[in-house]
Amino acid sequence: MPRPNRGAYLKFIRARGAYYIQWSEAGSTRKRSTGTADRATAEAALAEFIRERYRRQRPAGPRDPSEFPIADALDLYGSLHAPTTEAPERIGHAIEALLPFWGANMVGDVSDETCRAYGEWRGRSDGTIRRELGTLRAAINFAHRKGRLTHAPAVWLPDRPEGRERFLTRSDAAALLNAARTTRADTRLYLPLFIVLALYTGARKDAILSLRWTQVDLDRRRINFNPPGRKRTGKGRAHIPIPDRLLTFLRLAHRRGSDLGYVVHNSGRRIKDIGGAWDGAPDRGGDGSFGRACKRAGIADVTPHTLRHTCGTWLAQRGVDLWEIAGWLGHSHEHTVTLYAHHHPDFLDNARRAADRR
User: Fold this and answer.
1) CATH code of the domain occupying 9-57
2) What is this structure's pTM?
3) Of 55, 74, 123, 260, which residue is 20 to 30 A from 230 by alpha carbon distance?
4) Half-sphere exposure of 107 (CA within 13 A, CB side)
């Protein structure tokens, strides 16, 4: 009676000083070198070999969610879809957060109860949980569209949190800018420029950090936050004139940079994330420079996106037409009305006068 196939395993071949992966195939023993004598590294190579072999041998066509690993769905989404998006690092961060909880489960294990359990296990805000589970939902739907799943189970999400009303006063902004100038030497060259760009243009963090000098025309005084070939998404980017004070900052920065490089950079290298808010706890995102500046300035509950909201609020408070604010920020008019109309000095003024006449 033939012996059962034990599957792939490791064997140390002393004469060659390395671990080899051995397995049986079509009645013959086959082997492949891991190229290492370290057991842990060899075990990682064996795990990857088994995973790849399983992928090659899995049944063709879509599978039931109970037979499809969540790790495979996230891997498919991260490798095929993320590179086509505006900010693939966002998807990467979400996948890193999801894998420790979901990595050993099948897509069929997703339910309202397990999603809520993930939220409790993660211990973050509803907004963060919603973004991460939104990535899980997108990955499962992507696998279904690609013909890997027979159907896509529903993924429960927390309710969308209300938009933040937080914006900086002018004294807050001055304190933050001063703190950015007096932080560590390796950040004081780029952090003040990032803050000034965000306050004057209202551009999103990713748009500023990806901005190149080829998109800035200092002679014609224009900034185009849409790089050539960028895929248009719901998060619009503006093409705007450069205000006088910002122009001074940009000319000084241009002398330190190159015509082809990033406007906001660290010794020529792109900054992928400048950090998050200071809420009394250690900064949890990016290089942490923004959070440290907020802490130094004594300003809590402020994120880089707060600077965008501050720009829109200041424009509304100065009586700028809401259509122009929408164009400046790259918003839809409807979204601009929702966020900033109540800051406008003429907000509901016609209605008040009509009520007075009545």
Assistant:
1) 1.20.5
2) 0.63
3) 74
4) 28
